[in-house]
Amino acid sequence: MPEGHSVHRIAKQFAVNFVGHRVAVSSPQGRFAEDAKRIDGHTMIAAKAVGKQMFLEFDNELWLRIHLGIYGAWDFAGDISIDPTIASANGRMGQTNQQGTVLDEAGENSLHSIGAPRRTRLRMSESEKVEADIDVFPPEPIGQVRVRLLTDTAVADLRGPTACEVLDPAEVDAVIAKLGPDPQVDDGPEAEEAFVAKVRKKPTAIALLLMDQSVVSGIGNVYRAELLFRARQNPHTPGKLVAEDTVRELWRDWVHLLKIGVETGQMMTMDDLDEESYRKAMAKREDRHWVYKREGLPCRVCGTHIVMEELGGRKLYWCPKDQA
Prior knowledge:
28% of the residues lie in helices and 22% in strands. The strands form two sheets. It has a ten-stranded antiparallel beta sheet. By secondary structure, the protein is α+β, with helices and mostly antiparallel strands. The protein contains nine helices and twelve strands. The chain has helices at 4-17, 33-39, 84-87, 169-177, 189-200, 206-209, 221-230, 244-264, 275-283, and strands at residues 22-26, 42-50, 53-58, 63-67, 73-80, 118-124, 128-130, 145-150, 154-159, 163-167, 307-311, 314-318. The chain has two domains: 4-81 and 116-176, Alpha-Beta Barrel (N-terminal domain of MutM-like DNA repair proteins), CATH 3.20.190; 182-318, Helicase, Ruva Protein, domain 3, CATH 1.10.8. Residues 290-324 form the FPG-type domain.
């Protein structure tokens, strides 16, 4: 499932390529046809993400709410350019001075499309992949497209979302009110205090609380495992028994890692790498993380084998020594 950084990057794509433009909205698949009529032909005036949910605002006071879930993905095509705040990062990791484009071995390279608009196809879901340039615009829909958003220069096709609905402002507010704080929306002291207060009153395991979107927005399985290891926190400890300083450290580290994810498009969770190690990590997923998907392999710190177990229906990765 796409984690928070991916959804914020998708919202930035809409901000650059769709906001301020009149949008033709349709449902090639047919399942969204009635709702599509409510916003068809209107101008998109805002695009924002909160955690794993995205909201696109139109000039008739209606919003399109999207939750990609496990299978959802957006395909952008046309004269696509990327958000300048991402482009300005130029590959910088925040905690290092390394720069430059690094190609993922799977072809996923969030920096490849940065720069001048080009007539291409860009797939955005849990990860990003630039596909072949296109000759005809708009291209024919591929697969079961729930909703198509089309301007004179760009098109976005949505497939497989968990949620896709048109809401009024009050309904949008109600959805957001149920979500925990998101550092990309608010990383100030009030957001931190809200997170700390929720965690410190819960008897639920901290590993489950970090995945609870009402406690904190945007954290998924990868970031959950990595945040807990970086804090050397036992994932099974009830939230109310986790030291307050550790809870605050988790929040501040989430602010830090989410910023890196939004800037680079990759869930890089290892700090202070030299240039060679940084490039290796950006090129291969298995070299970006401390514990995620490293079950049976030696811990990078102590050498103990990383454990994988089922918790709350999801796989949990942790070091039984460093996180004892």
